[in-house]
Amino acid sequence: MNKMNFLLATNAKLGPILPFVLSSIYDNQPAASVYLYYSALAEEDLKKISSVAKTFNGELNLIHFDIKQILDQQGLKDIPAWFGSYDAYTRIFAIQDLYEKGIDKCIYVDCDVMILKPLDELFSIYSRTDAIAGVLDVMPDTNKFKTPYYLNSGVMIFALDYCRKIKFPDKCVAFLKDYADQSGFMDQDAINNAIKDTVPICLDPKFNNLLRDFEHVENAVIMHYAGPKPWDFWRKWDHSKFVYYKLKLYYYLKSKGCNISKETLTRLFKVLEFVLHPLVLLLNWVHDVNFKRRMRRKARRNAKK
Question: What residues does 7 pair with on adjacent strands?
Answer without folding.
Answer: 35, 108
